[in-house]
Amino acid sequence: MLTSLLDGKRIVICAGSGGVGKTTTAAAVALGMAERGLRVAVVTIDPARRLANSLGLEELGNEPHRIDVDVSGELWAMMLDSKRTFDELIERLAPDARTRDEVLANRIYQQLSSAVAGSQEFTAIAKLYELDQEGGFDLLVLDTPPSRNALDFLDAPGRLTRFFQGRALRLFLRPGRLLGRGTGLVFSVLQRVTGVDLLRDLSTFFRSIGGMIDGFTERARRVGALLEDPATTFLIVTAPRHDPVEEAIFFHRKLREAGMPFGGLVVNRLHVAPAGEVPAELGGALGSRVASALDDLAALAEREAASVELLRSELGSVMVVVPEFADDVHDIEGLERMREHLFDAA
Ligand SMILES: Nc1ncnc2c1ncn2[C@@H]1O[C@H](COP(=O)(O)OP(=O)(O)OP(=O)(O)O)[C@@H](O)[C@H]1O
Ligand SMILES: [Mg+2]
After folding, report:
1. Which one, out of 79, 210, 278, 293, has a CA that is 20 to 30 A from the CA of 160?
2. Confidence of residue 175 (pLDDT cuts 50, 70, 90)
């Protein structure tokens, strides 16, 4: 199903509400395309521990490593390290080694970068941009952060740009600003009490980062442009339940409004109605418990089928349905099962 959709694409982004199966789908899509002979890298974000284990993602660097799996292409995977990605960005944008070291060692930078990196939305796309520029892969598959709001992700480059161009930062950067009489006194008292030379940290930070603002802004712009590239496509992952379905419909609309390339929809963890009746031999209390469990499952399946219909009529797009498996998806065999549904289903 997904094959024709992904044909000729360089980047696939798996987005959707929390917990619906974005990470699993991203890994299974990467596996499927590697089986088609491509050299594929998947960038995962906080994969469930068992999946991370079986893909060997725990002893990560911030670069993809090859997974030992029998495919005609190559499957590579990495787990995003946000802080590291942000530091690498500084390394690239710093005009010289001294500025670089000054910024990286600076306490203000360390706090700020943890805060920005903590949101993961920007660093995920920034890493994608790096890998795309390096050009070592036919296809990059990006998992997205478990945010409550998938839109945070679309807006991340814009938010960073606004921060760097914003008034707050410009004010700080004005020469002499930090050295006003009153402030100087406060800082020197602080330094005496805490032993931390906050003023020096602040002024070093703003002096060295000041020269990188244009670089940052330009980088954020290009990273943002990658999301609109025709060789990029979004897969919206959802579950057949009320809230994720509403969010998927909303997200789809926002993608369209933002002019970003929507590819298709993955509805994950669909329950199917049980076939057949409770055998007559199974009488008594046990028989009626089984019957009532089957009724519950049938009702759930019916509600979920209605969600699928709603999505079909609202989105009218390529849609792939993956059933709820008996066990969670935590190794290559599980991914292979998921891959079959994503790629081979009629
Ligand atoms: N079709 C399925 N059947 C059974 N279990 C599944 C299925 N798809 C995913 N899972 C399991 O559901 C859990 C959540 O999946 P996953 O981590 O991929 O979701 P996510 O959208 O990435 O979550 P988050 O928003 O927290 O990042 C995992 O334990 C995964 O193994
Ligand atoms: Mg995830």
Report:
1. 79
2. low
Nearest-Å Rg of the Cα atoms of the chain is: 25
Is the model's pLDDT at 170 over the cut of 60? yes
- Taking residues 245-267, what's their average pLDDT? 92
Closest of 125, 160, 154 to residue 140, by C-alpha: 125
Q: For position 118, what pLDDT does the model report?
A: 59
Q: What residues contact residue 161 under an 8 Å CB cut-off, 6+ apart?
A: 217, 220, 221, 224
Q: What is the reported pLDDT for 122?
A: 82
For the chain, give the mean pLDDT.
Answer: 86
Predicted confidence at residue 275, as pLDDT, reads 80
| Least confident among 64-78, 134-148, 198-212, 313-327 | 198-212
The ligand 1 atom at the shortest distance from the C-alpha of residue 19 is 23
Please name the residues in contact with 131: beta carbons below 8 A apart, sequence gap of 6 or more. 41, 43, 64, 137, 140
- Best residue for ligand 1 mutational test, from 13, 14, 17, 23 (most atoms within 8 Å of Cβ): 23
- For residue 47, give the amino acid letter: P
Reported as type and span, the H/E element at residue 269 is: strand 262-270
Estimate to the nearest angstrom the gap between the alpha carbon of 280 and the chain centroid.
50
- Pocket probe for ligand 1: among 237, 328, 336, 337, the residue whose CB has the most ligand atoms within 8 Å is 328
How many CA atoms, within 13 angstroms, populate the side-chain half-sphere of residue 164?
Answer: 19
Tell me if 322 CB under 6 Å of ligand 1.
yes
Q: Does 180 score more than 60 pLDDT?
A: no
| Residues with a beta carbon under 5 angstroms from ion ligand 2 | 22-23
- Ligand 1 centre distance from Cα of residue 3 (Å): 22
Q: Is the CB of 18 under 6 A from ligand 1?
A: yes
Among residues 209, 196, 202, 195, the alpha carbon closest in space to that of 180 is found at 202
pTM here?
0.88
